[in-house]
């Protein structure tokens, strides 16, 4: 259970998110909220959303691995989002999309969600910006998953998801790599109780949980940032035609919190 979840979480949640989002029609309030988040200069500068748009626009059959790689490359070069920016974006989405969240929205306390997003964001950024050699770790994991499961594309999402469900075990040369160990170390440090160590060592061996930094891994994020992207109004329009991306993010985020 652990290994399936651990190894495929990125690929499968993206696939599932895309698949379900294709059937999803967001309310106009929610679309406006999304558009505001995407066009807001602060979020644009720290989240690099314009690069994500290309995931939506790349055609249903094309792999999403390269667009995600491009998005993360920009995201890791940008200064981190401030707590204020995260708070504003989260509150706008929660209130604009309350109807879309349906019954889920009733139990939601906006202050708590904002605090969680603020707590998780630095960890997410550190994990998302890990590199092995010249490649981002996320890209490596997605590429490995793609080789195992088939093209990670919008149109192929259901097939990928179905294939993942037939596997009882993901090979350890995908789950227990140096990239995954480095990510595990970061999560363990920031959220010590999030992942039971014994589950991890039973799959990847004792050395996986020794806390040592694996060789060949580096951190590519920058804390100053050198990127000021904005003027995303036209892109926001495109994104509203490509809502799947946003559904993906929601689905992935939800999965990460499970
Ligand atoms: C995607 O692939 C399917 C099946 O091969 C094909 O029928 C369809 O035209 C393709 N769509 C695009 C946008 O290329
Ligand atoms: C951001 O908010 C989180 C929780 O709400 C807090 O733990 C963290 O210290 C804050 N970061 C900064 C830079 O103020
Ligand atoms: C993992 O091992 C299998 C079987 O030895 C091999 O076919 C596959 O290419 C390997 N995958 C990676 C990512 O190294």
Any overview of this molecule?
It is built from 15 helices and 3 strands. α4 (49-57) packs parallel to α14 (233-241) and α5 (65-77) packs antiparallel against α9 (137-149). The chain is mainly alpha-helical and 258 residues long. A hairpin with a 2-residue loop joins β1 and β2. The chain has a 3-stranded antiparallel beta sheet. The structure holds 2-acetamido-2-deoxy-beta-D-glucopyranose (NAG) (3 copies). Residues 59-61, 155 line the site of one 2-acetamido-2-deoxy-beta-D-glucopyranose (NAG).
Topology:
Blueprint: H1 2-22, H2 28-39, H3 41-47, H4 49-57, H5 65-77, H6 83-96, H7 98-101, H8 110-128, E1 130-132, E2 135-136, H9 137-149, H10 157-166, H11 172-175, H12 178-190, H13 197-204, E3 217-219, H14 233-241, H15 244-257
Offer a quick outline of the entry.
With 258 residues, the protein is mainly alpha-helical. It has 15 helices and three strands.
Number of strands: 3
Distinct compounds present: 2-acetamido-2-deoxy-beta-D-glucopyranose
Counting DSSP H or I runs of 4 or more residues, the number of helices is 15
Helix content: 55-70%
- Walk across the major sheet and give the strand order: 2-1-3
**How would you classify the helix and strand content by structural class?**
mainly alpha
The fraction of residues assigned to DSSP E strands is under 5%
- Major sheet description: 3 strands, antiparallel
Q: Radius of gyration, Cα only, in angstroms?
A: 18 Å
What order do the SSEs take from the amino end to the carboxyl end, as H and E?
HHHHHHHHEEHHHHHEHH
**What is the terminal separation in angstroms?**
13 Å
Shape, principal axes of CA atoms = globular
Assembly of the depicted chains: single chain
What is the mean pLDDT?
79
Low-confidence stretches: 1-23, 226-258
């Amino acid at each position: 259970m652990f290994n399936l979840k651990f190894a495929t979480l990125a690929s499968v949640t993206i696939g599932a998110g895309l698949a379900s989002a294709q059937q999803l029609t967001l309310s106009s309030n929610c679309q406006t909220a999304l558009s505001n988040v995407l066009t807001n200069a602060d979020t644009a500068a720290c989240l690099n959303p314009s690069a994500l748009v290309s995931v939506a626009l790349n055609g249903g059959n094309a792999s999403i691995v390269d667009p995600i790689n491009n998005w993360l490359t920009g995201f890791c070069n940008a200064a981190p989002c401030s707590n204020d920016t995260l708070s504003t974006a989260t509150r706008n989405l929660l209130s604009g999309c309350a109807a879309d969240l349906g019954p889920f929205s009733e139990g939601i306390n906006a202050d708590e969600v904002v605090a969680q997003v603020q707590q998780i964001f630095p960890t997410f950024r550190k994990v998302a910006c890990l590199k092995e050699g010249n490649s981002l770790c996320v890209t490596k994991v997605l590429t490995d998953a793609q080789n195992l499961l088939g093209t990670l594309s919008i149109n192929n999402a259901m097939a990928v998801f179905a294939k993942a469900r037939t596997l009882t075990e993901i090979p350890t040369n995908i789950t227990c790599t140096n990239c995954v160990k480095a990510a595990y170390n970061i999560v363990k440090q920031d959220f010590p109780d999030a992942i039971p160590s014994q589950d991890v060592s039973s799959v990847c061996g004792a050395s996986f949980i020794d806390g040592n930094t694996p060789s060949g891994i580096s951190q590519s994020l920058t804390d100053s940032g050198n990127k000021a992207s904005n003027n995303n109004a036209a892109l926001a329009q495109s994104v509203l035609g490509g809502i799947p991306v946003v559904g993906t993010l929601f689905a992935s985020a939800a999965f990460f919190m499970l």
